[in-house]
Amino acid sequence: MHKIIIDGENLTIEDVIKVARYGYRVEIAEEAKRRVKAAREVVDRFVDEGKVVYGITTGFGKFSDVVISKDETKKLQRNLIVSHACGVGEELPQEVVRAIMLLRANALSKGYSGVRLETLETLVEMLNKGVHPVIYEKGSLGASGDLAPLSHMVLVMIGEGEAYYNGERLSGKEALERAGIKEIELVEKEGLALINGTQVMTAIGTLAVYDALMLSKAADIVASLTVEALRGITDAYYYKVHAVRPQIGQQKCAQNLNRILEESRVTTRQGELRVQDAYTLRCIPQVHGASKDAIEYVKKVVEIEINSATDNPLIFADENRVISGGNFHGQPMALAMDFLGIAVSELANISERRIERLVNYQLNDLPAFLTKRGGLNSGFMIAQYTAASLVSENKVLAHPASVDSIPSSANQEDHVSMGTTAARKARSIIYNVSKVLAIEYLAACQAIDLRGMYELGRGTKVGYELLRNHVPVLDEDRIMYIDINKASALLEELVIKVEEKIGELM
Questions:
Q1: Would you state the torsion angle of the CA atoms of residues 147, 153, 157, 159, taken in this order, to the nearest 10 degrees?
Q2: Does the keyword section mention Cytoplasm (predicted)?
Q3: CA-based Rg of the chain, rounded to a whole angstrom?
Q4: Which of 51, 54, 272, 504 has CA atoms 20 to 30 A from the CA of 259?
Q5: 3-197 and 205-502: same fold?
Q6: What span, in angstroms and rounded, lies between the C-alpha atoms of 77 and 72?
């Protein structure tokens, strides 16, 4: 079976996708095991010596000044988990839960957290055997780490809470028993080490940035189909236009469009049908390209975060030191996730305006709403309504979460990131964008069929044929949501097939 080896240093976004969505097994690198043991020895030594260290022999948050006796330190860790499991709202999807477990295990593998190796191995065993804790989406401030949602993960490790196993929702205790996994008793530092980190926002964000990268490429292909459907002018994509304003994403997008549209016989040159196109066609490189640059920035932030130690305190075994810091603060991810949501929402904004140009007979020379018998048939009229509804919702969702903060823990934790809220909003925006692009995909191919012009570009021909293999031409009205969902589900395959034909898109 395929596997991913974690060492806290080299996990990639693609690795997270493989584990979260495709069930790859996870193993802990031998060097990581050595580091974990070394950090644990420091914790044990401090406990034996009776040192006062935050989270090990003290309470948490505002209770950091309360010293806990040695015989109560295990109860302290259990109490931490059960008291912090305050998540509410919908359950996080299984792929997100798997990503959370993987990222927390990878962070612990760095060897700065002080957990026992057997505790880390229990988490990995749950992941490999498909014991998926029930984790609720709301309740994290994103600044003492994702305390509430991660506590729901740890509940199952100690035989509490709830989990799914083989598709059945069970008590945490029964899920572990059925999977043949022994529940653990948390010892000093372990409860805090398992929940004090940014892994929920980062898990959601990792999946989101992967999907955003895919949607960015799909948007270029779908837009190219619209360019053909509207007989767009390709001079606007000429490389010298973009060389004199060398924004990286803009240049990449223009190159993509030229390659996708190569050999097309249905596009035009300036002055052939009209002097210039509307912005939604002419400015595709500028708009899509700016989103590409933003997504690339977010990708770099995520790549750093998935291999970071984000709990508190941190154990530096080489110096025999335990230092209390603030790596749990989610501000880097919060800003990045807000930026991601804004960037991806723009792909839908311009897509919806292209849909309008396709369906509005006042803006083109096609049948109104892309149907031959308008009046009897409504064609794509309400599909455009749906796209408009989604982009309007995205405008609300794109309002930054990171500009908000609210004090907690009696003002000890007096600035928080709201990073998990930002990540969840970005995920919702990405869902909406996929549906808007699906509607444009359908509308562009419908317009091409109405024109009867099939001498398409090397990339657009692949895209057109893929859709028509799954969704027939709309000759008369039918249930449209089925087509929209089919087209949305094809977007990743669309990118893969076009790349097979013309090479990797940027």
A1: 100
A2: yes
A3: 26
A4: 272
A5: no
A6: 9
How far is Cα of residue 11 from the mean position of the Cα atoms in its chain?
A: 16
Choose, from 22, 24, 54, 464, the residue flagged as catalytic: 54
Other CB atoms within a 10 A radius of the CB of residue 479 amount to: 7
Nearest residue to 394 via CA among 435, 432, 424, 355: 432
* 3-197 has CATH 1.10.275.10 classification: yes
Q: Where are the alpha helices (DSSP H) in 50-139?
A: 73-84, 94-109, 117-129
Would you list the domain boundaries of the chain? 3-197, 205-502
CA 254 to chain centroid, in Å, comes to 26
Residue with tokens 């596009």: 267
DSSP string, 115-131: --HHHHHHHHHHHHHTE
Q: Read out DSSP for 251-270? A: HHHHHHHHHHTTT-SS-B-T
Quick check: is 54 catalytic? yes
d(CA 281, CA 279): 5
Residues in the chain, overall count: 506
Q: Can you say whether the dihedral through the CA atoms of 202, 208, 211, 216 is positive or negative? A: negative
What number of CA atoms fall less than 13 Å from residue 367's CA on the CB side?
20
Residues linked to residue 4 through DSSP beta bridges, in sequence order: 26
pTM equals 0.94
Per-residue pLDDT for the chain (506 aa), expressed as one digit of tens each?
Answer: 699 999 999 999 999 999 999 999 999 999 999 999 999 999 888 888 777 777 677 766 667 667 767 767 788 889 889 999 999 999 999 999 999 999 999 999 999 999 999 999 999 999 999 999 999 999 888 887 899 999 999 999 999 999 999 999 999 999 999 999 999 999 988 998 999 899 999 999 999 999 999 999 999 999 999 999 999 999 999 999 999 999 999 999 999 999 999 999 999 999 999 999 999 999 999 999 999 999 999 999 999 999 999 988 899 999 988 888 888 888 999 999 999 999 999 999 999 999 999 999 999 999 999 999 999 999 999 999 999 999 999 999 999 988 877 777 666 676 778 889 999 999 999 999 999 999 999 999 999 999 998 899 999 999 999 999 999 999 999 999 999 999 999 999 999 999 999 999 99
Pairing of strands 314-316, 321-323: antiparallel
